[in-house]
Amino acid sequence: RSGDGTGGGGGGPKAPKAFVALRDVDPTILQEIRYATAHNFVGVPIDGYRQPICLLTRPAAEALHAAQSKLLRRGYSLKVYDCYRPQRAVDHFVAWAKDLDDQRMKSEFYPNVDKSRLFEDGYIAAKSGHSRGSTMDVTIVRLSGGSVDMGTPFDYFDTLSHTLDPRIQGVQRQNRLLLKSTLEGLGFVNLAEEWWHYTYTPERFPDTYFDFPVSRRSLTSAYVGP
Ligand SMILES: C[C@@H](N)C(=O)N[C@H](C)C(=O)O
Ligand SMILES: [Zn+2]
To answer: How many A from CA of 136 to the centre of ligand 2?
Structure first.
């Protein structure tokens, strides 16, 4: 098998060696992989999510570990909602978006945006950085168990989720800025439309959109430490 993610060899596409399971790099980072469940804007588990796990390129996972070390010292933990996203999952989003009659999840995820505008307005991408393996959707929680108010929930498609929306002030803004300054200090870049979406740079695969499933079985090498 080629190991380049293009599917050489049997059993479907596999990840290149540079991909790792985040849990192997940092077991303390919380994971709530929404697209492996029905609790997301589509309302059903998304194609390609065979296990609720976070896969990332190794440099991105190690940089998240560095961010976690900083946040733990301040009484917070990172929590990831999505990491590597196969192209077939993105294609599922695109097919869902074409069915304008399906508005089941509107009230929770996009109450103020017309479904037909979700791609145009930058909330979902037809070619997503997530498929390149160095992008993740992430928030912070308190180690004490208290919630951290970011002004909107994850995947709330609305201008209020724009990271620096001027209506977000006080503690909510401080919380967004704590996440942003911690991650930007380690090489991550935020998407202005979504306070939760970050890409680690330089990207290990800046031009490749992978399609192997989200599953441990997709990995082709074990993580042996930095
Ligand atoms: C869908 C949302 N979680 C997200 O990641 N949006 C960006 C724009 C993407 O799809 O890459
Ligand atoms: Zn994202």
So the answer is: 6
